[in-house]
């Protein structure tokens, strides 16, 4: 059975088999979690992302999909990059946010990862309301069959931690 845990802090400081990166479709770094992972992980992550762009993902990684690279200098074996949806008040994109979590677990299983650390995907500049993102994330990982032994949500601040804590119970 998969164990769900929470911690508050910086995902780039976590130790896990795989760290999830809330990436943008370009896979070339950016702001928020994406920029932090690229900065702390070093150039090896960017080099692999460039190779992915030159081969399988010439148009960028589609929203809701996931792909793995090395973790570079991070305390992990892999980074699993996923592109979360931008929140919309007029269009239900919750299926795409759920897909991010399912796809990350699928990739983790392919890699043989036993511990996976997730940030609060899409809740930064993509504007997804924290309570709803927490609901979707927790329900999706609970409902997704996986060999991953521990799924850890690494939340940056008190508000995010509280939103996920309400869902995990």
Automatic annotation (TrEMBL):
Pfam families: Macro. InterPro entries: Macro_dom, Macro_dom-like. It comes from the Bacteria. PROSITE patterns: MACRO. Residues 1-169 form the Macro domain. This is Macro domain-containing protein in sno 5'region. It comes from Streptomyces glaucescens. The lineage of its organism: Bacteria, Bacillati, Actinomycetota, Actinomycetes, Kitasatosporales.
């Amino acid at each position: 059975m998969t164990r769900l845990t929470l911690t508050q802090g910086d995902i780039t400081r976590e130790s896990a088999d795989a760290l999830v990166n809330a990436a943008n479709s370009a896979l070339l770094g950016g702001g928020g979690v994406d920029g932090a992972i690229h900065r702390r992980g070093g150039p090896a992550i960017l080099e692999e992302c460039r190779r992915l762009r030159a081969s399988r993902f010439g148009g960028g990684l589609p929203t809701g999909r996931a792909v793995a690279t090395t973790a570079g200098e991070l305390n992990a074996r892999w980074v699993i990059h996923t592109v979360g949806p931008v929140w919309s008040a007029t269009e239900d994109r919750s299926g795409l946010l759920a897909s991010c979590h399912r796809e990350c677990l699928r990739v983790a299983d392919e890699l043989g990862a036993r511990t996976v650390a997730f940030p609060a995907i899409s809740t930064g500049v993509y504007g997804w309301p924290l309570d709803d993102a927490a609901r979707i994330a927790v329900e999706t990982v609970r409902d997704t069959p996986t060999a991953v032994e521990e799924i850890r949500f690494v939340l940056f601040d008190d508000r995010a931690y509280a939103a996920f804590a309400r869902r995990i119970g």
